[in-house]
């Protein structure tokens, strides 16, 4: 009985959370629950103040109906973006409206796990103070990190490129906070933000393809991220595009990243134009390349579209997604210009039927949604539990 009640509460709550305001009558149609079940569930959710009444809507001739919505002030959540050179902490209300933020720039996080933990905890304290929220109302802290997140007997972060080799991040953060912690790869949290509020809305199967200096992906299979055996799935950038091809920073040759990552694109251009390889600011250099009117620039960009299209064709053939969503700072810059060409090439490199099912689009939330995506992790748990807090489940109150 308890499970059924929880799942009914979760169905109603998810509908209100993702699709806005409904009357009790509409909720029955939208959830497939009986009118009586909806009335019971809504009664409980209103009593718990998870859901509030949002006004009246007229119905033809009959009595006006009461609209219901999720109460944004019922609880709040924290999202953290640990990037390679920054730590960003944000506090959101339950509907993920930002209430406060705190950001720290670091030269690098390489081999500096302790310093990152200090920054996260300091940012958390700062944000709680600035937003004035009661810490008792925080559902949890979601953290997006670079690298793989392995969930064994202890959660470990492996980020080869910044020298994090099995950093026990959960245990280290736990020493400074009692709040529930949710740690995931930053590509996955950004992907989750796109699935909830951006280009992935409404899809169950999608790949969010992220192109920055490096290249990664978040694979969403039937609504949830596909992680593989130890959190290493989605390393699209290190799939082989050319046997014995260009060297990649992972140590292998011919990886996709070595061709379509910002570094790979710029380095191919510099070779073709006979320029030195040193690049001070990759973003400035990529913008310059896109603005350059030269044969060498055009050829490098055409080739980039061909490599990216072939890589996306592979994703389509392996995962049969409804959407391939291209993002990351370089992905957005390149995609704006190259998306039509990328689609054409992807069509040639994938089977006809899965290609027809897959829309190739750009991310809609920009490049800064890692923290917001991390904050969806405690919200997802709350919605799945039918609006009951995990901390309330763990510790009896009173
Ligand atoms: Zn590689």
Helix/strand order, N-terminal first: HEHHEEEEEHEEEEHEHEEEHHHHEHHEHH
Uncertain segments of ≥5 residues (pLDDT<50)? 393-398
Oligomer: single chain
Counted beta strands? 16
Reported for the largest beta sheet, the result is: 5 strands, mixed
Number of helices: 14
How big is the Rg?
23 Å
* Shape estimate: globular
Nearest-integer average pLDDT: 92
The side-by-side strand order for the widest beta sheet comes to 6-5-4-7-11
Portion in beta strands: 15-25%
Ligand kinds: zinc ion
Estimate percent helicity: 40-55%
Q: What is the CA–CA distance across the termini?
A: 25 Å
Which structural class fits the helix and strand makeup?
alpha/beta
Textual characterization of the structure:
The structure is a single chain. This protein is an alpha/beta fold and 398 residues long. It is 43% helix and 22% strand. It contains 14 helices and 16 strands. A 5-stranded mixed beta sheet has the order 6-5-4-7-11. Strands 14-13-12-15-16 form a 5-stranded mixed beta sheet, sandwiched between helices. Strands 1-3-2 form a 3-stranded antiparallel beta sheet. Helix 6 (186-197) crosses helix 13 (370-384) and helix 8 (262-273) packs antiparallel against helix 10. The longest helix has 25 residues, at 295-319. Residues 238, 248, 250, 252, 255, 257 line the site of zinc ion.
């Amino acid at each position: 009985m308890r499970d059924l009640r929880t799942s009914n509460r979760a169905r109603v709550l998810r509908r209100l959370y993702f699709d806005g305001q409904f009357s009790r009558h509409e909720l029955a149609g939208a959830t497939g629950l009986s009118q009586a079940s909806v009335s019971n569930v809504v009664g409980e959710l209103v009593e718990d103040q998870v859901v509030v009444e949002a006004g009246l809507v007229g119905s033809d001739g009959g009595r006006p109906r009461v609209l219901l919505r999720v109460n944004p002030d019922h609880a709040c959540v924290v999202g953290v973006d640990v990037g390679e050179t920054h730590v960003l902490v944000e506090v959101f209300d339950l509907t993920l409206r930002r209430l406060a933020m705190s950001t720290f720039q670091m030269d690098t996080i390489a081999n500096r796990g302790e310093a990152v933990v200090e920054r996260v905890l300091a940012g958390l304290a700062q944000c709680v103070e600035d937003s004035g929220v009661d810490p008792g109302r925080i559902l949890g802290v979601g953290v997006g990190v670079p690298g793989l997140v392995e969930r064994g007997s202890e959660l470990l972060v492996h980020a080869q490129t910044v020298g994090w080799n099995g950093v026990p991040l959960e245990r280290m953060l736990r020493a400074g906070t009692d709040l529930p912690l949710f740690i995931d790869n930053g590509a996955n949290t950004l992907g989750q933000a796109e699935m909830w509020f951006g280009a992935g809305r409404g899809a169950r199967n999608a790949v969010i393809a992220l192109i920055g200096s490096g290249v990664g992906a978040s694979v969403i299979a039937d609504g949830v991220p596909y992680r593989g055996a130890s959190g290493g799935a989605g390393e699209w950038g290190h799939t082989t595009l050319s046997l014995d091809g260009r060297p990649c920073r992972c140590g292998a040759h011919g990886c996709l990243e070595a061709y379509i990552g910002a570094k790979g694109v710029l380095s191919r251009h510099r070779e073709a134009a006979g320029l030195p390889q040193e690049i001070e600011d990759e973003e400035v250099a990529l913008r310059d390349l896109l603005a350059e009117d030269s044969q060498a620039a055009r050829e490098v960009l055409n080739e980039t579209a061909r490599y990216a299209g072939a890589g996306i064709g592979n994703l389509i053939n392996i995962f049969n997604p409804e959407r391939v969503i291209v993002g990351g700072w370089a992905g957005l810059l390149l995609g704006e210009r190259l998306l039509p060409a990328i689609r054409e090439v992807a069509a040639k490199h994938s089977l006809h039927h899965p290609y027809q099912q897959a829309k190739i689009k750009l991310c809609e939330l920009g490049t800064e949604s890692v923290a917001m995506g991390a904050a969806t992790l405690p919200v997802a748990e709350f919605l799945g539990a039918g609006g009951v807090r995990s901390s309330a489940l763990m510790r009896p109150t009173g």
